[in-house]
Amino acid sequence: MTNKTIIQVENLNKSFGGLQALKNVNLDLKSNEILGLIGPNGAGKTTLFNIISGSISPNSGLIMFKGSDIKNKRSDQRCKLGIARTFQITKPFQNMTIVENVTVGAYFGKNNISISQARKKAEETLELLGMKELQSFEANTLSIGNRKKLELARALATDPQILLLDEVIGGLTPTEVNAMIETIKEIKKMGISVIMIEHVMKAVTSVSDRMIVLNYGEIIARGTPQEVTENPIVIEAYLGGAKNA
Amino acid sequence: METVAKTNKGKRSFVARKEYWYQSTKVLYSASAIILIILPMFVGNYTLHILTLTLIFAVLALSWNLVAGYSGIFSFGHHAFFGIGAYVSALLSIKYGLSPWFGLIIGGGIAAISGIVISLPVLGLRAAPYIAILTLGFAEIVKLIVSNLVGLTRGELGLSGIEPFTSIGSISFNLAHRLNSYYLILAVMCLVVFVILKVISGPRGLALKSIRESQDAAESLGVNLRKSKLYVFMLSAFIAGVAGSFYAHYVQVLTPSSVLGVDIMMQILVITVIGGLGTIYGPIIGSFIVVMGLEYLRFLGDDRLMIYGVVLVLVIIFMPEGIIKKVFRKAK
Predict the structure, then answer these.
(1) Is B89 among the domain residues?
(2) Does residue B195 lie within any of the structural domains?
């Protein structure tokens, strides 16, 4: 396993009007690493994802992907470079079949792929996630758990190097949670680096190599899952003090 | 079979429901072939004229459906492309004696270029109301320009004596041979349906549909929104321009209000919504219902517009996905 930095974020700032959503955020992601991103609601986690994936631009700061600045690239260009994401509020293509949904990712996520290759890739991805038998149903028939899986399938079909997972576990049943944890471990084995936002602590601590905690737009702690969960500042931010923990 | 159909009534179900004889594609295709190809041979000139207008509007609605139904971009200035196609082709034939056959292509081409121009500001907008206002404003500007360039277009006096399509061998397209004009627009419509089917079933169609469903998700998966939107505006404006050009050489009279009025846009909208937004054959069925319905209710005077309104409301309440999907479930 190489320890090459694949994504590097430096001094990132973003404000929405008077609200500073991110303050001097620095982070790096090594190749083949799972980075857990946690923090209370409104801490700026999804904003950070939106900036890395290119759907909003920062006020200042640097985003380097494999050593080159990607600040001026649009979302679709970043996707083709190898940065894929899922959405916390799932955005399935409702009136399209499951396999069509995933084919969009497979076809447009990479250059030079034929539509039939993309379709095959989509079917393989669905197979991997155990959704093969659902492939010809329209996406609007899916349950929440399967919608989250569909988000993941679409992103995975783009053949990414980095996967940004925005709460793919929250809202799942306990069985589904375990299955999803296994899937994320599989994804790591495929050589993909992952940043995951998650509130389900059991899940995020069990798969993350490192964790980062955001609070009010600032990184307040970083380290291994154990270091982070035992950090008094983190407990303070989450639970309002150790005495309540 | 019957019980399956009964238990699933009103529910979204994974079990296939009973298929009635009239829902089979064989019946559907042969019925349309009879209605569209054979029946017109036995009708009078008046009915033939209505049928021709019906198909012109079907082509126009098909082109709008590409933008609104498949890509989810509600442009309300589509009649501008129809008018531009009509005026460009008519003026080229009147001023420079250009054959209407070339006018059909050039009219479509100029409409396509204006489609690109109007799509540029639309690219930056995501909220439907702004797109609606912008495109509607564009169409009004086109109408004002055409009405005020009196030297060129004779303004509201209109253009008259526009050449009909020049005859091919013994096949003439003047008003004495309406049947030929009818078959010509039928051929144009079939070609348009073929092109749209091709586009929709290919990668472009996938991109357009994904944009309709969620622009954010589409972009995050690598779909180039700008490119796709430019493309769909250009293609649909071209088709609308061709329809306009055909209209000019068929009716042979043009005024700004007859081809650039906002009521044309209303007609396109109603046809598409009644027939089925985002379906291939919806706009055609819709056109038959709306254009023919309005024509044959003419004896009611302006009261027919009330019926038109009531039908639209009923369709939106009881079959928001349009008639075609209600009757033929497999329709896409």
Answers:
(1) yes
(2) yes
**If you search the block for the tokens 């500007």, which residue do you land on?**
B141
The mean pLDDT value of chain A amounts to: 88
Q: In chain A, count of helices (H) and strands (E)?
A: 9, 10
- Whether this model's ipTM surpasses 0.95 comes out as no
Range of the domain at B71: 46-261
Side-chain half-sphere CA neighbours of A21 within 13 A:
19
Of B136, B143, B91, B106, which is closest to residue B118 (Cα–Cα)? B136
Please check whether residue B207 is in contact with residue B228, taking contact to mean a CB–CB distance below 8 angstroms. Answer: yes
Residue A55: which residues within 8 A CB-CB, separation 6 or more? A75, B216, B219, B220
DSSP-assigned beta bridge partners for residue A218: A215
Interface residue A4 vs chain B (CB under 8 A): no
Domains held by chain B: number: 1
Distance from the Cα of B264 to chain A's closest Cα (Å) equals: 29
Mean pLDDT for A19-48 is 89
pLDDT in tens, A224-241: 988 888 888 888 887 675
Report yes or no on B253 lying in a domain: yes
Helix (H, G, I), strand (E, B) or coil at B321: coil
- Determine the pLDDT at residue B331: 55
Of B206, B220, B221, the CB nearest to A55: B220
Q: What percent of chain A stands above pLDDT 70? A: 96
Which CATH class name applies to A5-244? alpha beta
**pLDDT value at position B329?**
62
Residues on chain B touching A87 (C-beta within 8 angstroms): 216-217, 220
Residues of chain B neighbouring A74 (CB-CB closer than 8 A): 219, 224
Token pair of B233 as six digits: 């505006």
Looking at residue B36, its pLDDT comes to 86
Q: Domain boundaries in chain A? A: 5-244
CA distance linking residue B287 with residue B215, whole number of Å? 30
**Residue closest to B269 by CA, chosen among B312, B326, B213:** B312
Residue B4 has pLDDT above 50, yes or no: no
Closest CA to B225 of A63, A104, A57, A14: A104
Yes or no, beta carbons of B221 and A53 under 8 Å apart? no
**Chain B residues inside the 8 Å CB shell of A141:** 12, 14
Q: Give residue B11's pLDDT.
A: 41
Q: Which residues contact B54 (CB under 8 A, 6 or more apart)?
A: B287, B288, B291, B292
Q: Is residue B140 part of a domain?
A: yes
